[in-house]
Amino acid sequence: MIKTLHFDYDPDKRASEILELEERIGALEGVTYTWVDEIKGAFSENLDYLEGILESYDILLIHPGVKSQHEVIRRFSQKFPDLRIALVALMPEAYKDPYQNQFPNVKLLAYESIDGIVNYVRKVRDDISGANCI
Questions:
Q1: Quick one: pLDDT at residue 7?
Q2: CA 106 → CA 20, 27, 30, 86, 102, distances in Å?
Q3: Radius of gyration over alpha carbons of the chain, in Å?
Q4: Which of 19, 30, 75, 114 has the most CB atoms less than 10 A away?
Q5: Regarding predicted confidence, which is higher, 92 or 62?
Q6: Residue 118: which domain range?
Q7: How many structural domains is the chain composed of?
């Protein structure tokens, strides 16, 4: 089972996208989708909580606008080397240079392309499932 965790600091603005992701990713065979709604306040103030639950997840979908996002990505990449991290933004091209150079394994995705996000999760599932078969 591939477990996906999703966090966005402003879920009210993206409620319809989150509901669609929950439905579509949750419908993928062998995949679960969890929206983090327990977090109150800034994402960076909840890193310990997230670290406590992330070890059981395979994919983290996160909005790149969270405070201290570089620190968050660096910290999670080091602590969870098998965790696949994708930044989901309204304008992902705005994050291409600062992220792709520092974090080449971090995928940039757009809320406008729900299909792209679902396909990313499907690809990770297939990659992990294929690796487990070898």
A1: 82
A2: 23, 24, 22, 5, 9
A3: 14
A4: 114
A5: 62
A6: 2-133
A7: 1
